[in-house]
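Q: A reviewer asked whether we had any structural model of the full assembly, not just the individual parts. We don't, so I'm hoping you can provide one. Inputs are below.
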Amino acid sequence: MISALHNYFVFLKRCGRVALIGDWRYYAWMGALTVVCLFGLNAYAKQLVNGLIITGMSDEVSWGVYIANFTFLVGVAAAAVMMVIPVYIYDNKELHDLVIFGELLAVAAIIMCLAFVTVDLGRPDRFWHLIPGIGQMNFPSSMLSWDVLVLNGYLILNVHICGYLLYSKYQNKSPAKWFYIPFVFLAIAWAVSIHTVTAFLYVGLGGRPFWNASIVGPRFLASAFTAGPAIIILALQIIRKFTTYTVTNKAILTLRSIVQVSMIINVFLLACEVFKEFYSGTTHSASAKYLFIGLHGHYALVPWIWTAITFNLIAMGILVLPVSRSLRWLDVACVLSIVGIWIEKGMGLVIPGFIPTPLGAIVDYAPTLNETLVCLGIWAFGLLCYTIFLRMSVPILQGRLSKLNEGLPEVQSNDSTGKSLI
Amino acid sequence: MEKSGSSDGRKSGALTNYWLSGLTVGFLGLAIFFVISSNKKSVSQPNIALVDKKFLETTPWRQTYADLVKAKEDLSDYDCYGCHDKAKPPLIRFDSNQKLIIPKEHANIQMAHGAHERNNLCYNCHNEQNLLTLQVRDERNIKFDNIPQLCGSCHGPTYRDWDAGAHGRTSGYWDRSLGNSTRLSCANCHNPHAPHIPTREPAPGPHSLHQDTTHHERAEALH
Amino acid sequence: MNSSPSYTDKASDAAMSRRSFLRGCAAFGGVSALAASLAPLRELGDYTNTEQFLQKYYKELTPSDMTKVIARIEGEVERQYGIRPHVRDLKPMDGVEFVYALNLTRCIGCRKCVHACVKENNQSGSPEIQYIRVLKMPHGSMDVEKGNHNYDDKQVPEKGFFYMPIQCQQCKNPPCVKVCPVNATWQEKDGITVIDYDWCIGCRYCEAACPYWARRFNFTKPDIPKERLNPDMAYLGNRPRKQGVMEKCHFCIQRTRVGKYPACLEVCPVGARKFGNILDPESEISYILREKRVFIQLKEEMGTSPRFFYYFDK
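A: Here is a predicted structure for the entire assembly that you could use as a starting point for your response.
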C-alpha cells in the first residue's frame, strides 16, 4: 500500500516536472497565460471587495458574460467526451488515444465552468450551502442543484478515466477493462445529461418566454457537438505541430463529420426558432425581436447575432463541400463555427432572455473591463490546465514517460532538430 | 548534423534563458502594478438624492371641520351666525345663464360638484334653517362630524364600499383584535364643493444601476 | 559530440544549473505576482466572520441560536448606524392568509408607496433598491410592455392612462422558491414568500425565474441613510441586508405579523391599496373579492396564482 502510494507520488512528481520544464516557446506561452490569469485574479479580488456592481449586470439583466461563458463551456465539455462514441462503439482503435485528449479537454472545460459559476455568485463564501447533507440542496426541484451534482460528477468521472488510463500506461500495465469501460459508457450518457440539465436551467423558467421553449435543449446539444469537436480538431493539429505525437488525418476527418452533421442540425434548428418567433406575431417574441431586429430603438445585439449567423452559414457551407477535407479550409470552418456558436450561446441566448424584463423595460447590458478581465483570466487558466494536461499525457502515451525509465536522466526536452519532444 | 543540432539547441537554450529572465522581470513588474492599483479607489456610487419627506407623509390631504373641532383649532372662519342672521336663511343668486353666483365673502369656494354643474345648489347639502348642520333630502339633519351619511345619500355604492372599508384608506391594524384602525371621512380626501381629486406632483422615478433611465420613455402604440 | 567530453559535460552542467536558477527566479516572480494580485482583498473588511460563515439555515436554528443571531445583528447595526435596533423573529399567525388588492381606478401614480416602502424596509438609497415599480399604462391594455417605468409627468394622474404598482405577488405557486438551489427562499404559512438573507448565496436564479421582476439583488454594500433607518426590524423582513444577497417585498412582515397594515398601504393617499386576511370573511379584503367584479391577476397564464389582485371600480 505504502509502496503503491510512493510510486504514485513519484509519477505525480515527474508529471509536475514535465509541466514546469520546457523550451522558450513553452515559457512564452505559459508566461503569457499566467499574466492573463493574474489580471483576472486581481479583477476578481476587486469584485469580491466591491460586489458585482463592477460588472455590467443589473437587476434587469442579472446574468451576463460569466453565465454565457459557462453555458458555452458546458457544451464543449459534453462534446469532448462524445468523441468517445466512435472509439468504443465503432471499435476504432486509431482514435483510441485521442479519446484521452478529448476527455482532458472536458476536464479543463469543466474546471472553467466551475470557475465561471463561482465568480458569478454574490456570496461565494457560502458555497458550502450547496453541499448535499451539510447545506440545503433543493434537489430535485432546482435545476441548479442538478447542475452542481452532474458537473462535479462529470469532473470526477473524467479525472478517473484519464487518470487511470494514463497511470496504467505509465506503469506499462494493461488497464483493467472493468475499471474504466463502464465509466466510459457512463461518461457518454453523462455528457448528454450535463448539457441537457444546463439547458433545462433556462427552459424551466415560465416567466421568460424566450427561454421557455422546447427547442432550447436540442439546440444546445447541436451547437455543443459543433463547437466541441471543432475545438478538438484545432487542438489535435496543435499537438501534431508542437510534439512528435502522431495524429492521423483519419482522426481529424472523423471529427469533421461530427461537426458537419451537427452544424447542419444547428442551422436547421435556428430556422425553426426564427419561424416560431416571427410568424405568429405574439408578444412573446419581444426578446427575439430585440435580438434579431432591435426593439424600441435598442439594437445592441443585432450586429452580433447576424455575424454569428453569417459565420455559421459560411462554416456549414465549407463543411458540406469536399474542400473542407483540406485542413486549411477545415480550420477556417472550425474557427468560424466556434466563434459563431460562442456568440449564439452567449449573447444570443443569455442576454436576450432578460430584455425586455418581465415588466417590459429595456435596459442594455455591456460587460465592464473588470468583468472582461475575469473572463479572460478564467479562459487563460483553462488553457493553462489543458496545456499542462497535454504536456503530461503525450509523453506517457508515447511511452517516453514511463515507469521503465524512472531514475534515468530526465526526458530530453528537444530532439536534435529542435522540435519539442514534450 | 549533431554540431548543427547542438548549436540549434544552444541558441534555443539561450532564448529560453532570455525568456525566463524576461518572465521574472515581467512578473515582478506586474506585482508592483497590482499593489499600486489596489491603493486607488476605483468604484464610486452614483449620488441619488433622498426623496423629499413630503412623499413619506401619511396625513390626509384635507382636514374636515370635525377634525378642526377635535384639534381645538381656531374656528372663527366657521362661525356662520357671526355674519348671517339666525332668522333669515341666506339668499342664493343665479346669473342670466342659471349659473350660481358665489358671494364675495365666500370667494374661496369653487363650485364644481357634479357633471354639468348639476349639484351647484348650496341647500342640496347645507341646511338653510340651521347653518351649523347639513341636510339630506329626506329632511334628516346631519352633523358636520357625520358627513358620510350625507354623501352616501346620493353616492350609495361608494358609501357602501366605504362602510366595508373598500373605499378610501383604512390605516392602523388589519387585525382589529390587536389594535385600532382609522377610517377617514369623505371630506378628508374630497373637497365637498369640488370633489374631483386634483392632480398632483409624483415622487421621482426609479434609477437603474448602470444606465441613466431618467429620460422619458414613451409607451409604444398598439403593435 | 566534441572531443573533450568533460568540458562539454561541465558546460552543459553549468547551463543546466543556470537554467534551474532562472526557472527558480521566474517561479519566485510568479508567486509574488500571485500574492500581489490579491492585494485588493485588504479592503474586504467585515465581509464575513467565523460566526456568520457557520450560521445555520433559518429553519434549523434553535431558539437559543436565534437569540445569538439576533444579538449579532443588533450589534452590527448599532456599530454601523449608531442606533440600536429591535430585531424580532416573528412567526406566522394562525388562521391567517394574506391577500393584497389594488384598485386601479383609484391609483394616481404618485409613487408614495415606493418611497414609504424604501424607508420602512431599510432599502439601499444608492445604488437604489425599490421593491415597488409603478407602471404608467395606456388605457385599453394590460400588456406590461406598453408600460412606462420612468414617467416624470409634472402632474399625475394623466388622462388616458392608468397606473399600476407592481411588487412581489407572493404567489401560491412561486417559481422563485422552485429554483433556489439552497432553499434560501420559501413560502410561509401565512402566504408570504420570505428570504433568509444569511443563507442566500447570491446566484440570482430566483431573479431570472420571477415573472414579475419582483426580486432585487445587492450588487454592492447597501447604503441606508442613517436618518431614515427604521429600527423596528424582523429577521425575515427589514433588517439591513449584506452585499451579494437577494431581497424583495415581504408584505412588511415586521408590521403585518403584529397585525398592522403594510407601509405602502399606510401612505397611499387615495386608499387604492387593500390588504388583509382572506380567511376572515369580515375583512375588507374578503369584501372586495366578493363584491368587485373585474379581477386581474398579472400573467395569470404563468400558473403562479398570485395573491395580488388588481381590480377596477369603474
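A: Points you may want to mention in the reply: Chain C touches chain B through 86 residues (CB under 8 Å). Residues 5-37 of chain C form the longest helix (33 residues).
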